[in-house]
Amino acid sequence: MDVKSDTFAPLRNVFNINRAIHAPFDGLDEMQIERKVTEFIQHTRLDDYKHYFMKAAFLAQSDEAFDGNHGDGPLGLFLSDEEEICLLEEKTNRWKQPQALWQLVALCAIGAITQGWDEAAVDGGTIS
Fold this sequence. Notes:
Elements: H1 3-7, H2 9-22, H3 30-44, H4 50-61, H5 81-92, H6 99-127
């Protein structure tokens, strides 16, 4: 048994998990993606949103799934003009988000800091 290969086995598992998170549909063809989305839709009973989930699945596989496909994307899907503008905006200006989202993030961060501060104070009080 090769000791070196066993040493890096846990790291390979982490890399596989990261790859699955980064590109969940990588290596799947159109029919496999359609089957997975259909199973998800049936499980969650979100039939009204199937076309959105289909588009999202192909974009999760590749952010270039709809590039240059004016009306002829995977499985005949296409992006509306508004969706194309939003995707382009996400690629060119990733940090442009609504002001309310930034306020929410700041508020949650302040809450987490306060909770950590309180827990540290309580823990310190019980030690002495």
